[in-house]
């Protein structure tokens, strides 16, 4: 059982690392965004904030909430 736990943790860490490597901070409609950053529980709001802080020059990040400025709930939006 302990072995399975170690394997699960290793897979989780690797998938987070590889997922983060593929993310790019792109500017869409004047707003910097990470597409699909908020899609899974692995990232969510904390992963979004971290990605925006490191790759978008210290901007604050938050997941979309469906309004006109942040329409896609899977996307991380980076703002000043």
UniProtKB/TrEMBL annotation:
Keywords, sorted A to Z? Signal
Q: Does the keyword Signal apply?
A: yes
- The signal sequence is 1-22
Q: Which domain of life is it from?
A: Eukaryota
The protein, known as? Putative secreted salivary protein
What organism does the record attribute this protein to? Answer: Xenopsylla cheopis
């Amino acid at each position: 059982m302990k072995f399975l736990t170690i394997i699960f943790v290793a897979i989780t860490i690797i998938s987070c690392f590889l997922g983060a490597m593929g993310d790019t901070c792109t500017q869409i409609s004047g707003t910097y965004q990470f597409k699909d950053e908020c899609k899974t529980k692995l990232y969510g709001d904390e992963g979004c904030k971290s990605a925006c802080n490191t790759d978008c020059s210290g901007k604050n990040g938050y997941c979309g909430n469906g309004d006109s400025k942040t329409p896609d709930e899977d996307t991380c939006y980076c703002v000043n």
